[in-house]
């Protein structure tokens, strides 16, 4: 129907793809960070290190849980944008068809 509407749909679809790519990167990074945190255990096995771990790990684990959620949440944002773009395009095409169907076939000079 209009160039602006088509352009907006294209931008939404592009944004969805870009966000989906970032979501994948976030998932890979979060898994790597989690594995590093859990396997390195850089606080040591001595009493001081263990005392540090006792204070550090609960908060760090909560942060890592939220980081692990980031990729899937961004993926949902991308899916929603793609769905919105499709709905917007469908509505635009429907409106264009309806406008064409009721458009006058003759013009009147005023």
Polypeptide structure, described:
This protein has one domain. About 5% of the residues are buried. It has about 110 residues and is mainly α. The chain starts with a helix and ends in an 8-residue tail after the last helix. The mean pLDDT is about 85. Helix 1 packs antiparallel against helix 2. The protein contains two helices and no strands. The longest helix has about 55 residues. It is rod-shaped, with a radius of gyration of 26 Å.
* Tally of alpha and pi helices: 2
Uncertain runs are none
Rg (C-alpha, Å): 26 Å
Strand content: under 5%
* Mean pLDDT figure: 85
Helix content: over 70%
- Quaternary structure annotation: single chain
- How would you characterize the largest beta sheet? none
Structural class: mainly alpha
How many strands?
0
Question: What's the helix-strand series?
Answer: HH
Number of domains: 1
Morphology call: rod-shaped
Q: Kindly, what is the distance between the CA atoms of the first and last residues, rounded to a whole number of angstroms?
A: 26 Å
Question: Secondary-structure map with pairings?
Answer:
Blueprint: H1 3-40, H2 47-102
Task: Summarize this structure as a short list of keywords or feature phrases.
single chain, 110 residues, mainly alpha, 2 helices, 0% strand
Would you summarize the structure shown here?
The chain has 110 residues and is mainly α.
């Amino acid at each position: 129907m209009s160039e602006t509407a088509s352009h907006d749909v294209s931008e939404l679809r592009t944004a969805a793809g870009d966000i989906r790519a970032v979501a994948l990167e976030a998932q890979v990074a979060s898994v790597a960070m989690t594995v590093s945190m859990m396997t390195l255990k850089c606080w040591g096995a001595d009493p001081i290190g263990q005392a540090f771990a006792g204070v550090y790990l609960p908060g760090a684990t909560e942060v890592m849980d939220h980081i692990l959620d980031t990729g899937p949440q961004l993926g949902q944002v991308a899916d929603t944008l793609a769905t919105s773009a499709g709905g917007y395009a469908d509505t635009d095409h429907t409106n264009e068809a309806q406008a064409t169907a009721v458009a006058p076939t003759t013009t009147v000079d005023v």
